[in-house]
Specification:
Layout (H helix, E strand, L loop, with lengths): L1 H27 L3 E7 L5 H12 L5 E7 L4 H8 L3 E6 L8 H8 L9 E5 L16 E7 L6 H4 L1 H6 L2 E5 L11 H11 L4 E4 L8 H18 L2
Helix pairs in contact: 1-4
The protein binds magnesium ion and zinc ion.
């Protein structure tokens, strides 16, 4: 049993070192980066589709899309104007720092201001693998139910921003917003939260303003 624990610690240590390398590379090129995490179908790609067209005249945007198979998400990101790279994880249920390093090699870094990494849809292990990105963003959604912070505390505890997507479905689904937000507050007090709908566009502007501010401020401080 002790051996197994040591192996796990070594893997995580190696991942953290590579994540630090990724971060250094992003910093060197003044690229602000986010790690988008969520369960499958919460709306990570839809959020990218709502974000890229709104900001692409201001920033040069690259997207890295992690999936077990297919390039559907990278194709969607490319269709709205991002320089998109697909990572097929070959069955792995999360991205790790090695995979992001390989993706960064395929991106024109000097020509990039904002990097959006779409992690594999999964609420468990993506939270454990640092990639080197600057901020972690969790996309929750109304149909998933209001108990998710209680059931997946690890991911809720570790993120910098929470998006609550599909608020247009609130009239049709029993989702106790108060109960959900209490669970979040318990794990991650004061977490920056954007309730929105990628479908109707409600609330998206607030998210865009936050992100624009981050990219601009990062460019200033990293000069
Ligand atoms: Mg997706
Ligand atoms: Zn995994």
């Amino acid at each position: 049993m002790k051996d197994r624990i040591e192996v796990v610690e070594n893997i995580m240590g190696a991942n953290d070192r590579l994540a630090a390398d990724n971060r250094a590379k992003l910093d060197k090129h003044h690229i602000f980066s986010i790690n988008l995490m969520a369960s499958p179908g919460a709306g990570k790609t839809s959020l990218i589709e709502n974000t890229v067209p709104a900001l692409k005249d201001k920033f040069r945007i690259a997207a890295v899309d992690g999936d077990i198979a297919t390039s559907i998400d990278a194709d969607r990101a490319a269709a709205v104007g991002a320089a998109a790279v697909q990572i097929n994880t070959g069955g792995e249920c999360h991205l790790d720092a090695v995979m992001l390093r390989q993706a960064l090699n395929q991106i024109d870094l000097p020509q990039t201001d904002l990097l959006v990494v779409e992690n594999v849809g999964n609420l468990i292990c993506p939270a454990s693998f640092a990639l080197g990105t600057h901020k972690s963003v969790l996309v929750a959604s109304i149909p998933e139910g209001d108990d998710k912070p209680y059931k997946y505390p690890g991911i809720y505890r570790g993120v910098d921003v929470l998006i609550i997507n599909k608020i247009d479905l609130l009239p049709y689904i029993p989702f106790r917003m108060e109960y959900f937000r209490q669970g979040v507050e318990m794990l991650n007090p004061g977490l920056k939260t954007f309730p929105l709908s990628c479908k109707t566009g409600e609330g998206v502007q607030e998210w865009l303003e936050w992100l624009e501010l981050q990219v601009t401020a990062f460019k200033e401080t990293s000069k």
